[in-house]
Write a structure and sequence with these properties.
270 residues; CNF1/YfiH-like putative cysteine hydrolases; single chain; six-stranded mixed β-sheet; alpha+beta
């Protein structure tokens, strides 16, 4: 399958096929390049919750906002607590988490909206970015799915939130973005015990006692299929955050001392 993300700039990759469907839609994922942060956060760290200089992070966010032509004051972020709560974003949420992590929407790992002028954002360094778009109704969203969010079925929570707004899951488009690949994601019995048994054959490889390789991308695909999303409406990136050091931060590879990439989706307001 062709790579769904196209590199538009040193700083970001975009979901070109979606942007071609709607003139004001932007959707993509940043790289680690083109910013002001110093090692180990070099250089486009966008996560306010890591121990980077806050002034550098805000400068990085403003620089990206200029490139995306989407004001920082219009960004919206969830707190990201590795759970499965999904928030419906309105104009009342504009700017939450954009310049101060403490103003992020509490207890939230998923965002959806259909309103223009709001950029739904989430931050990543191995966890799975899930992007959603329904061309018929215009609803869109993003979710942060680490292993906990994945086994807590945040993908299902997103689909149900869309369904509550009249979206047909069979028409919903989903992109699974850059995250850690199976070959680089070793987990133990504790993690594997949380995975539904009917998903095990397609997502887990045992390599030793209490040692497994987990495919987070495929696990999210399996959950989405179970929720009525069609397989040919799901695009899965080939990018691996762990392997591609020059492009991405990786929490596991960098042993926690690293920055965060940004996943984003929204409609520009002209």
């Amino acid at each position: 399958m062709a790579e769904v993300f196209k590199q538009q700039d040193d700083a970001f990759l975009m979901i070109e096929k979606w942007q071609e469907l709607h003139p004001s839609l932007i959707a993509g994922f940043t790289t680690r390049n083109g910013g002001e942060s110093n090692p180990p956060f070099d250089s486009l760290n966008l996560g306010l919750h890591v121990s980077d200089e806050q002034s550098n992070i805000i400068a990085n966010r403003r620089s990206l906002a200029d490139k995306l032509e989407f004001p920082l004051e219009n960004w919206v972020s969830g707190e990201q607590v590795h759970q499965s709560y999904v928030h419906f974003v309105t104009q009342l949420d504009k700017g939450k988490g954009s310049a101060d992590y403490n103003t992020s929407i509490k207890g939230t790992d998923g965002l959806i909206t259909n309103e223009a002028g709001l950029l739904c954002t989430a931050f990543f360094a191995d966890c799975v970015p899930l992007f959603f778009f329904d061309p018929e109704t215009g609803y869109l969203g993003i979710a942060h799915a680490g292993w906990k969010g994945t086994v807590n079925r945040i993908a299902e929570q997103m689909v149900e939130k869309f369904e509550s707004q009249g979206v047909d899951p069979s028409k919903l488009l989903v992109v699974i973005g850059p995250c850690i690949s199976q070959e680089n994601y070793e987990v133990n019995d504790h993690v594997v015990s949380k995975i539904e048994s009917n998903f095990m054959d397609h997502t887990v490889i045992q390599t030793g006692r209490d040692r497994y390789l987990l495919d987070l991308k495929q696990l999210n695909v399996e959950i989405l299929l179970q929720c009525g999303v069609f397989r040919n409406n799901i695009d899965v990136t080939n990018y691996c955050t762990f392997k591609e050091n020059s492009l991405f931060y990786s929490h596991r590879r960098d042993r926690g001392q690293t920055g965060r990439m940004l996943g984003y989706i929204g409609y520009r307001k002209f």
